[in-house]
TrEMBL record:
This is Hypoxia up-regulated protein 1. Gene3D superfamilies: 1.20.1270.10, 3.30.30.30, 3.30.420.40, Actin, Chain A, domain 4, Substrate Binding Domain Of DNAk, Chain A, domain 1. It comes from the Eukaryota. Residues 578-600, 853-888 have a biased composition (Basic and acidic residues). It is found in: Endoplasmic reticulum lumen. Residues 601-613 have a biased composition (Polar residues). Residues 575-621, 849-905 are annotated as: Disordered. SUPFAM superfamilies: Actin-like ATPase domain, Heat shock protein 70kD (HSP70), C-terminal subdomain. Keywords: ATP-binding, Chaperone, Endoplasmic reticulum, Nucleotide-binding, Signal. CDD domains: ASKHA_NBD_HSP70_HYOU1.
Length: 905
């Protein structure tokens, strides 16, 4: 179905169908666009196709900052506020620290940019923040807390638990960084359906609004995304492709990333830091003092530089000004856009480099492609000008620069989650860091190092591949490394880190060969199956020895098939679910894709069936033999969290969550008590409340409230949650009657007016209903005399009860027990209303009776009677049905209608 939503005053059609499955209940799923500076969260839930989750300030994005101060943990804007006064306690720009060793260039650059953090080397060799109380936090633990905070916002806004998500990551993330992001999500209690490259998420958001434009003719779009810390450009191809799903071929739209360029250190943060340095030099030139020695002053300058940079995107000049920057001295300086562009003059050429690398990696495809801009820092005028020069066309701002990735990722989340059906859109990403397999073998008595590319530059994924080792007969090992990185600039190579990924040691090779040796057996080698999943993470699925045996005897075939059948299904049950084509690479040269093992089994079975047919000579059959080979994979770069390390980090985060929960409970109880006491103290002096209690009760209430207030302002603020709740219950117990009686006296006049209105309407209805009895009109005998008399009796009884009760209540003081309650009036209204509605419904369904025709089945009419009947028209039944019906409807419409509000009171 077509769905629309409104954004920035414009209504956009969503060309997708988010339909709940009829077979299962759909649970809400979220996307989290975790950037260096901001976090945005999208959600899809039953009845809510796509939307951005608002934070507690009702904003659509939240600063990616977490702070700790006085045993209180804060997030977002609150954490930023803490960071201005206590910079060391507020942690930000954590994305570039994920999955990196302590001595990584980006970690060292982080330490230089934010020198007030105490960062040490952890046992794993990763950076670790040392907090005031000697508590330590890894980047993964801090990111996990920010992800959990986003998850909590989504759960609060939609009122249901959430466990599944799609996370955006920079497309240049390597294997260690991708694993680290998934570890952080696991610590946050999130199951990651997919890690999606941010530019791919943007391309999805762009494509779903243009599905009707996608056809068999490919067209290209270049997405340029400059964020806070980095810049990416991706050339994407859109076209329709044919896929075979559920047994039939279907044509679906597809987007495929065909070219990518990036610069990991080009972004808004670099501009802010340069502008901050400009402000520092201006301060020092005026003899302001050593501002660099003050973390608080440096943080103030950083915040002001960020603010001025944003303002200069729309204005040509602006003042930077800070009160009490250092030693109670104020700072003020005029900054122009030209000043900022001069400070960053070398950055604009780097914008062009990113564009050129994206086009170059696509092999020059996409000439004349439309350029779409995303990312907050892309709003800088000099960036847009450099982009226009590099691309040769005017950039378009046809998507929401801040939210495109979030909405694209949440669409992907809906397509991956259980219980949702979305309009098909195939997504094919591209490998940025090529991967090769390296091993050695004996050649002419010498050991030779062999390299085979597993995934080349811009290879699409998800995909699985197989590499075959057909010269090894004993145990051996091979390495998986990054390779062919010539297309990546030298400065970016340093940021990748170690090029060695894993070492795989194979054992039991000779045993596997001997076990499957014999006549008519052809060795097909050792096959290692790899899978690049849709998160861009490389997995070694399994390693096996494969051989083919030629047999001519049916019994041998049966025996062999039964022997290997369970092994085949066990090894390839999960692989068969992947839609990608396997590509097998041997030691010598690339080969054709290996056939699916299920197909091989089917083929063999078919041949066997054919062999049972009468033939002069049995045809030979090929049986595939497979034997698993033990593979011990060791990660050579950054080690993932061990189970014990994960448990330790999870325990640390759970402890913080429990502290927050108890703190929030205590603060809520304190606020409830304080607010209620103040409210009572104010109202007890108001006449309308004071007249509802006696003078003695007023004194007791005032005394109790005074005691609680004194207790609160003395030492009560340090009390436990239970004490606040106990005090609140005590005050409520003394004031319940006052508030109850006040409510009764306030609401009673409206209730009395309502029942009087019902009585009047009921009398009018009764008066009209008497005309619809057999005695009044035989043709309209809708009601019986008993029904009329019962309603009349009910009306009289209700009126009598009301008059008596009102008189008795008016004779009482307001501080005496209530005689005539609103609830009793509501009950009387309900009873009377029920009786009237019964008769009304009877009137609506009543229809006049049709006159019966005269029939004589025992006598046969004479000829004269027949002639007379022919000459005299048959007398038609009296046509009273329609006039009677009209009359009833007309009179019914004149009946007084009961007020729904009164009848439901």
């Amino acid at each position: 179905m077509a769905i629309t939503f409104k954004m920035y005053g414009v209504v956009f059609p969503i060309l997708l169908s988010l339909l709940l499955s009829q077979e299962t209940d759909a649970a809400a799923v979220i996307s989290i666009d975790y950037g260096s500076e901001w976090i945005k969260t999208g959600i899809v839930s039953p009845g809510v196709p796509m939307e951005i989750v608002l934070n507690k300030e009702s904003k659509r994005k939240t600063p990616a900052v977490v702070a700790f101060r006085d045993e209180v943990r804060t997030f977002g804007e609150d954490a930023v506020t803490v960071g201005v006064k206590f910079p060391k306690n507020s942690y930000k720009y954590l994305l570039d620290l994920l999955g990196k060793p302590y001595d990584h260039p980006l970690v060292q650059a982080y330490r230089e940019r934010f020198p007030y953090y105490e960062i040490v080397k952890s046992e794993r060799g990763t950076p670790e923040f040392v907090h005031d109380d000697n508590t330590r936090f890894t980047p993964e633990e801090l990111v996990a807390q920010l992800l959990a905070n986003s998850k909590e916002f989504a759960e609060i806004s939609h009122g249901q638990p959430i466990s599944e998500c799609v996370l955006t990551i920079p497309g240049y993330f390597n294997q260690a960084e991708r694993r680290a992001m998934k570890e952080a999500a696991s610590l946050a209690g999130l199951n990651v359906l997919q890690l999606i490259n941010d530019y791919t998420a943007i391309a999805i958001n762009y494509g779903i609004f243009r599905r009707k434009e996608i056809n068999e003719t490919a067209w290209h779009t270049l997405f340029f995304d400059m964020g806070s810390a980095s810049t990416k450009a991706a050339l994407v191809e859109y076209k329709t492709v044919k896929t075979k799903e559920k047994g039939y071929v279907e044509t679906v739209p597809q987007l495929q990333v065909i070219g990518v360029g990036f610069d990991r250190t080009l972004g808004g943060l670099e501009m802010t830091l340069r502008l901050r340095e400009h402000l520092i030099k201006a301060w020092e030139a005026n003899g302001g003092g050593d501002v660099r020695a003050s973390p608080r002053a440096m943080e103030k300058l950083f915040r002001e530089a960020e603010r001025v940079k944003i303002v200069l995107s729309a204005n040509t000049e602006h003042y930077a000004q800070i009160e009490s920057l250092l030693d109670d001295k104020d700072f003020k300086l005029q900054v122009t856009r030209a000043d900022l562009e001069g400070l960053c003059s070398d950055l604009w050429a780097r914008v062009s480099n990113v564009i050129h690398r994206a086009i170059s990696s696509a092999g020059g495809a996409g000439a004349g492609a439309k350029v779409i801009v995303a990312g907050g820092a892309s709003r800088v005028p000099a960036v847009l000008e450099a982009l226009k020069t590099a691309a040769g066309v005017d950039p378009h701002k046809s998507i929401n620069a801040d939210e495109a990735a979030t909405l694209g990722a949440v669409y992907r989340a809906a397509s991956l989650a259980t219980g949702y059906k979305v309009a098909a859109l195939n997504v094919r990403d591209a490998v940025l860091l090529p991967i090769q397999v390296v091993f050695s073998r004996q050649v002419d008595g010498n050991e030779k190092l062999i390299r085979r590319i597993l995934f080349g530059p811009m290879n699409p994924y998800p995909q699985k591949k197989v590499i075959t080792f057909n010269k090894h007969t004993d145990d051996f090992s091979f390495n998986v490394n990054y390779a062919e990185l010539d297309h990546i600039p030298s400065n970016e190579l340093e940021n990748i880190g170690t090029l060695n990924l894993t070492q795989v040691v194979l054992t039991g090779v000779n045993d596997a060969l001997n076990k499957n040796a014999g006549d008519n057996v052809e060795n097909k080698g050792i096959k290692a199956h790899f899978n690049m999943d849709d998160s861009g993470i490389l997995n070694l699925v399994n390693v096996e020895f494969v051989a083919e045996k030629t047999v001519t005897d049916d019994e041998d075939a049966d025996s062999t098939l039964s022997k290997i059948g369970s092994t085949i299904s066990k090894l390839f049950g999960s692989d068969s679910e992947l839609p990608e084509k396997l590509e097998e690479k041997s030691e010598e040269q690339p080969q054709e894709a290996e056939k699916n093992d299920t197909a091989k089994v089917n083929e063999t079975t078919t041949e066997k069936q054919n062999a049972t047919e009468p033939e002069s000579k049995p045809k030979p059959k090929i049986v595939v033999l497979k034997e698993p080979v033990n593979a011990n994979e060791q990660i050579l770069n950054l080690q993932p969290l061990s189970p014990d390390q994960f448990k330790t980090s999870k325990t640390k985060i759970n402890k913080l969550n429990e502290i927050d929960r108890k703190r929030i409970e205590r603060e809520t109880a304190l606020n409830n008590l304080e607010a209620f006491v103040v409210d009572v103290q104010m109202k007890v002096d108001m006449e309308e409340y004071a007249e509802c209690v006696t003078l003695e009760e007023i004194e007791v209430i005032k005394k109790l409230c005074s005691e609680v207030s004194d207790w609160l302002y003395d030492d009560g603020y340090e009390a436990e949650t239970a004490m606040f709740e106990e005090k609140l219950n005590a005050v409520k117990e003394k004031t319940n009657q006052m508030f109850y009686k006040h409510w009764e006296h306030r609401e009673r006049p409206d209730a009395i007016a309502a029942i009087k209105s019902v009585l009047n309407n009921s009398r009018e209805f009764l008066k009209s209903a008497k005309n619809y009895t057999k005695e009044a009109s035989p043709e309209r005998d809708v009601f019986t005399d008993v029904e009329i008399s019962l309603l009349e009796k009910k009306i009289d009884e209700t009126k009598s009860w009301l008059d008596k009760s009102v008189a008795e209540q008016n004779a009482l003081k307001k501080n005496e027990d209530v005689k005539l309650t609103v609830e009793s009036i509501r009950e009387k209204i309900t009873n009377l209303d029920r009786d009237v509605k019964y008769l009304l419904n009877k009137l609506k369904i009543w229809r006049p009776k049709k006159p019966k025709k005269m029939e004589n089945k025992t006598e046969t009419p004479t000829e004269s009677e027949k002639t007379e009947d022919q000459e005299k028209p048959v007398e038609e039944p009296e046509k009273s049905e329609e006039p009677e019906k009209v009359a009833v409807e007309e009179e019914a419409t004149e009946l007084p209608q009961l007020d729904n509000e009164h009848s439901e009171l």
